[in-house]
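Check this:
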Amino acid sequence: MSDADDAFIRQSFDLIDGLDGLSDPLDVQKSIFDLVARCGFSYFAITRLPQPGERIGPNLLLSVWPEGWLSHYDRVGHYRHDPVVHHCLRTTEPFAWSEVPHAPDAAPQARRVMEEAREHGMGAGYCVPVHDAGGFQGGISLAGERVEMTPRVRRAIHLLGLYAWSAATRTTARQPKMLVGPKPSAGSKPPAGRLLSARERDVLAFAAQGRTREETADLLGVSVETVSTHLRNARSKIGTRNTTHTVIEALRLREIVL
């Protein structure tokens, strides 16, 4: 047993105890990153795993990822071929990226994903798969140029990853019910960790109830044009083509609830 391992394990348990007291997702993100950086991890992400054909961006809960990597990853469709994602869907056990069983010669797209990840400073990584109570699959993925972990540290990161997932989902949780209040001030931004603004969630929640745009406008005290703008912005953010699809995705992403 090394002193360094013992120190990291103690710090992991201290962080696990401290996560319950955090309410800001950025505080959760910083606390986790400050600790795992001591193992050589320069990046990490906590994300739900999208369905095939979807983008990973809207499903991210917390992330410290290389600049430009996420937009590139989504733009070229890496998610469909990422061997780390595929393995995460098949197991509940944590694993190093190097332990993912795939044949590079038989999967050039998978090889490209890993090669380009390495070019972005992610030559090694570790993943903790998660299957939550709602049936959503997700994971905590950590990466760096070079990573060194003893078996004891790996177990500590496994445990930390499960608690980090809970903290991420809690602090980025959507409102438990639709709130209809005063019109948000001009230029207001959605709270940290949320994809949609409060008004965008409101109009989608009314759409989910079968309300027309005119009815929604009357209930919110805004114009029909404003309702249409909020719906259009929500479609753009989630990456959907129509209101029905946007409502379905907003429910799946827990932006709104019925």
